[in-house]
């Protein structure tokens, strides 16, 4: 059983959540949520009536705690509008059955338990703390840049096409083109500086994370 915090302007727990065996409490503001983060396992943010408000809450919570598990509750019409840049971990439609809510929450708990530290060369990614460092110094990465680096490092040596990166980093519901992958890789390389060669280009295919500098030449 998980300790779930529901953040909603009305602070009213929806039926799908109230039917579960988890211990669920509710607050109405991001400030109240911040005060409770250390006491809960999963935070559910209500975006059913106001996605802009929900986005503000998720980015605030993510900024305060990089490892917080955030489940965003969205209306069916809002599924195509949400973006991983908002900082949520996963999202679920308000029309979902209680079993779907329960599955999402349990997946978030499992992911938190499976979090690990990836370290290759001078680059280190702490999945639990949501921090990336280069030679011991923190890297100032956006959410998507962090996810891109994490996925590349999770598959060292494997050639990853732009389509695969889009589906795994941006999500299957992302409607943008593969060009966005190139843009984010360029930004990530710029932040890696002299170590940008770790993210190697495979001509006409995609990218891979390599520890052999010649692979990027």
Structure explained in plain terms:
With about 220 residues, the chain is α/β, with parallel strands linked by helices. It contains 7 helices and 12 strands. The protein has a 5-stranded parallel β-sheet, with helices on both faces. Strand 3, helix 3 and strand 4 form a beta-alpha-beta unit. Helix 5 crosses helix 6 and helix 5 crosses helix 7. The longest helix has 17 residues. The radius of gyration is 18 Å and the shape is elongated.
Question: What is this structure's SSE topology?
Answer:
Elements: E1 3-7, H1 15-18, E2 23-27, H2 30-36, E3 42-46, H3 51-64, E4 70-74, E5 90-93, H4 98-114, E6 117-120, E7 123-126, E8 131-134, E9 137-138, H5 143-154, E10 160-161, H6 162-170, H7 179-192, E11 199-202, E12 206-209
Parallel strand pairs: 1-2, 1-3, 3-4, 4-5
Antiparallel strand pairs: 6-7, 7-8, 8-9, 10-12, 11-12
